[in-house]
Amino acid sequence: MSVVPAESLSGSARGVARAAAPAPAELGPRARLWPSLGAVYRAQLSRARVARIPLLFVATFQSIGILVMMRGVVDGGNEAEPVVAGSAVLVVAFVALNLLAQYFGQLRASGGLDHYATLPVPPAAVVLGAAAAYASFTVPGTVVTAVFGCVLFGLPLTHLWVLAAVIPLAGAALSGLGAACGLLAPRPELATLLGQLGMSAALLLGVLPADRMPEVVRLARDLLPSTYGVEALARTFAASPDWAYVLGDLAVCAGVGMASLAVATWAYRRAAVR
């Protein structure tokens, strides 16, 4: 009988086990931004459709009520242009600032960010998808408010097609700001307060004619992202719009939107790791 050393047995067993062990599985490709953005957008759109439609009616009726109220103060002409434009953009501010700040504030407080953190999607896709979904609900209310205001104050309807640029650009700027408020606020109640304060600022600084405001208030108005969307829309009510100024206002609104969404993405990363 031959005796085999235990060391050789253990070594051979390790060799057999190493040969039988399967090779480590390769990781799948990293999720790309645009497909992830589309998936998050569709999910947010279907989730928020039932809950947010009644609030959209509230936002629209609120803006129409402001138009009716301002009709007793402003007769028409140049002063009516910012009133109509500001009331239309106010629908965007109500949803993008107020509701989005509440959504991300509650999502952070309830631990919902942990669910998104486990998904193979970039942080920017989560923020942009939610912002785009909420901004989509503002399209009907903004168009109805703008048409109603033009009819009420006798303004032309010719160039209302510019809303196709004003809504997404102003929505991006305000959505980024609302998402950042919800993600950075330590409590959901504070996120709700910040969103309502932002919407109130959009109401007071965007609807009232700038010529009647003090200089300090005008400076504060220039810092509000929605101001440039209001200005771009208001300029199109003129008989011969200065399209260079309109494009300039839209470009500023786009730049502010990119910056605010970048801040919101950073705030999402910061809140997701805590």
Could you characterize the architecture of this molecule?
This protein has 274 residues and is mainly alpha-helical. The protein is 77% helix and 0% strand. The chain is elongated and about 55 Å long. It starts with 5 loop residues before the first helix and ends with a helix. Residues 24-28 have low confidence and may be disordered.
Share of residues in helices: over 70%
**What is the strand tally?**
0
* Helix/strand order, N-terminal first: HHHHHHHHHHH
Content-based structural category: mainly alpha
C-alpha-based Rg, rounded: 26 Å
- Would you tell me the overall average pLDDT? 82
Strand content: under 5%
| Tally of contiguous helical segments | 11
Task: Give descriptors for this structure.
mainly alpha, 0% strand, 274 residues
